[in-house]
Amino acid sequence: EKIIDTRCQLGFYHGIMEASLGNLTDDISVRLITQTCSRYPDNPVHRIGCQHVLGHGLMINFNYDLPRTLERCRSLVSDKIGRLCYFGAFMENVFVPLKVSVVGHPTLWIDDDDPDFPCTSDDIPRDPEVVNVCYFVQTLLWGAPYEDYNSKKVVAGCLRAPKDARMLCFQGLGFGAASAEAALSENEVCYNICFT
Predict the structure, then answer these.
(1) How much is the pLDDT for 45?
(2) For residue range 88-147, what is the model confidence (pLDDT) as tens digits?
(3) Collapsing DSSP states into helix, strand and coil, what is residue 81?
(4) Rounded to whole angstroms, what are the CA distances from 58 to 43, 51, 92, 164?
(5) CB-based contacts of 27, cutoff 8 Å, min separation 6
(6) Which candidate, 72, 70, 84, places its Cα nearest to that of 13?
(7) What percent of the chain has pLDDT over 70?
(8) What is the structure's pLDDT at 22?
(9) Do the Cβ atoms of 90 and 49 come closer than 8 Å?
(10) At 156, is the secondary structure helix, strand, or coil?
């Protein structure tokens, strides 16, 4: 925890936390790791990163059981930025079809016939915080692949989203465009996505 490296979108920290949580089987250890996130009251970057990565790690820990992970996020993280745990969980879920997830972990929470799933599923908490974050992250899937980010599909997806989820969903469009640019290391990509 003393060497959290914020470079590369917290990539080092993602790897350490995902590996640690992926191998834990007891609740006490998971709680101890979670308490680490609250140790950064004066460093929001570390605290936000910790809670986000917690969602990724819990998905791996629960073998990509999304409803169980979301409930666990809710029980472990109680402050205002706790939704970042949801963000990490949903992101880990969409990483499977994007082929950037942990190898050997399939997910049941992607449906090729329903592009809005799991956001529309009654099996995830219908809490607006959870649903809004789901649509934000779903933009990564709608816009894929990075090499040809499809902002028109993302806009159509956000317009399908519940009215209360649309603002965060459209912010996801910007996040996806920026992620595509960062992944491809071409400054023109982000400009072209946003302005064409």
Answers:
(1) 72
(2) 999 999 988 988 777 677 899 999 999 999 999 999 999 999 999 999 999 999 988 766
(3) coil
(4) 23, 11, 10, 27
(5) none
(6) 84
(7) 72
(8) 67
(9) no
(10) helix
Of 98 and 20, the one with more pLDDT: 98
pLDDT of amino acid 180: 59
Please report the pLDDT score of residue 166 as a whole number: 97
Written as six digits, the tokens of 194 are: 């946003």
State which amino acid sits at residue 3.
I
CA-CA distance, 130 to 165, in Å (whole number)? Answer: 10
- The tokens describing 187, both together, are 């400054």
Tokens of 176: 């996806």
| 87 contacts: CB under 8 Å, gap ≥ 6 | 52, 55, 133, 136, 137
Using CB atoms within 10 A of its CB, is residue 122 exposed (0-12), middle (13-18) or buried (19+)? exposed
Count of residues in the chain: 196
Tokens of 16: 């350490």
Cα 14 to Cα 23: distance, rounded to the nearest angstrom:
14
And the tokens for 76? Answer: 């472990």
Question: Of 153, 121, 129, which Cα lies nearest the Cα of 140?
Answer: 153
User: Using the 8-state DSSP alphabet, how is residue 80 labeled?
Assistant: T
Whole-number pLDDT of residue 1: 47
